[in-house]
Amino acid sequence: MLTQNLGYPRIGSQRQLKKACEQFWAGKIDLKELKEVARKIKEENWQTQLDAGIDLIPCNDFSFYDQVLDTSLMLGVIPQRYSPVLSQVKANSEIDLYFAMARGYQKDGLDITAMEMTKWLDTNYHYIVPEFTANQEFSIFHENIFGEYNSAKQQLGQKAKPVLVGPVSYLLLGKEKEAGFERVDLIKKLVPVYIEIINRLKQQGAEWIQLDEPCLALDLSKKEKEAFEFAYRSIANRVSGVKLLVATYFEALLDNTQLAVNLPVAALHLDLVRAPEQLDEVLALIPAHLKLSLGLVDGRNVWKNDYEKSLSLINKAVEKLGTERVIIAPSCSLLHSPIDLDLETAIDPEIKHWMAFAKQKLNEISELKQITEGNNDLLETNIKAIASRRSSQKVHKQAVKDRVAAITAADATRQSAFPVRQQLQRERFNLPSFPTTTIGSFPQTDDIRQLRAKLKKGDLTLEQYEKEIEQATIEAIRWQEEIGLDVLVHGEFERNDMVEYFGEQLDGFLFSKNGWVQSYGSRCVKPPVIYGDVSRPKDMTVRWSAFAAAQTDKPMKGMLTGPVTILQWSFVRDDQPRDVTTNQIALAIHDEVLALEAAGIGIVQIDEAAIREGLPLRKAKRPHYLDWAVNAFRITASGVQDQTQIHTHMCYSEFNDIIEHIAAMDADVITIETSRSQMELLQAFAHFEYPNEIGPGVYDIHSPRVPTTQEMASLLAKAADLLPAQHLWVNPDCGLKTRKWPETKAALENMVAAARQAREQISVEA
What we know:
By secondary structure, the protein is an alpha/beta fold.
């Protein structure tokens, strides 16, 4: 029985990659130094997996930014607009081109936008979306994968297993950038390049190669299923002497089971954490040659594996297949997991005993194998840990459970319909057409971070810290007034993270010191852990929102994170349904909204950046999720007066298939990301005739480039062609926490100028 891992976190246990990339972008280190940091991380990762006894260890799972972008560079899928960059940056190989595609390029007389970014299936990891044209050509443009395998082979020998994004999923995860073709039709051009790559890896000595095909777990059209059959039949006809493993995850195969088990490959990986029920059907259909990789250890959460449950699945598979055809694995890449629980010294020991991070999950994989070989001591230890969590009084609070059980329809309903509220809000705030605002956060400078660090270390008193934060808030307000923003924010200088900040003040949450995971590029987040029933013991944001509002005559937004986003961006309980946990959080946020209103805050933004992210991958499962997710948001916003304006914000998402549910949230104003897509996302809102107000983002905050006034005015004109101009707000794509002040100020000044231009040039009906 083999063990394998599908992928390992690449940021480094101390976020070395984040720091090195940001230093490289700032010109503080050169490419050689950046690559040295990467080399050390990779070698440490490989050694950790080797020490854990993993039989098949992934390589080429490392990335400076994103594995899908790596694939685009490898295959030469480089949008035409980057040609000038390529001609100017050859001295740094292709790394400047690579980062330009991810982040945009605004120097050397060039001004080129970044590629679109969106969520990796239903995770909070973002990937760079491939752009395809009808005459798209593919070739091996960047040969990094071959060097990666050689390096891994030197350290790991035959345990080194190259990992590739599979050809069909790569196409399906991209976008057509012109009309008249379907990207899946490019499979006949793409497969020969994959064959060349696989054969070269085989010649280098690769025994196993992993092809990630997460789209096999999605709803597929007939043409898409035929693309899978064509791709893998073609590869099988041209490749021999190497074992291919196709990996699926995050959902069951369902109607794609027959297709998947009959692909001409050596092994198939299943996510049995998300969908343990699929094992029976797969075993009933599996052909005699196929090995089965059982994804048993949760790659997306922090809880210890329940060995008894995993062993029941292993035994079922072994009974049918024998031990030689069974591989034990995590459910997916451990990219989505924090790195090492051993680094955590402050977590409650009782709760820590229930947890496992990536390094510990490797040990769980090995221990499951050892138990099948007769090590019952490991099993008994695990059984005790699982039982202690189930019975702990730290987890269960009856008063919280009772309040959730008492929720009624009235708890999720505003007093009046939107048209009534809209009129009252316009009278209250008297805003101009195309009102300007930001999404909430302003740059978290080193000075601000150092203040927080000094407070934690005891080098500052709370009074000293708050005085400094007050000053930063006042300066941000004065600057917003100076440039003419209409609805202000306090900047969130007191907040570390939009979820962590709230979790620290809610009962039922705990926090790690080093539990970082990659969100995109150098952006890392440290998700809180929801271990028990959630409640709000005291006000969380009223002090800072009320202070900020007192400094200005302009409207000041109160800023909150919504219940679904807190759920999605936390490591959540796996011992009760997700909707129950979400309703507990919704009631806590509801109480905070009412407290802000009582303190005189007239506009409250409840960010639901992740509501689309949480959408089940299969359409049949979506209605149930959308019902409880939308209802949870409505619970947070109910109870306020009609003249209190409720905003929400949503990040990189496609809204076409859930637009009616977005409308059902009944937020007075929604702000969304649209700049990278050039307002394409507004098509869904226009077609639906979205009734409430909307702020389509007019500049990309994930890029350091500063868009011009004319560029943003042009986007506003596009938006006004699609939606009623009187319903439009003007704002960035997202919060500005990760940006620097000079670019932020320049961009927002241009944005305000674009709004003024729109007021002069675009007719707004009364």
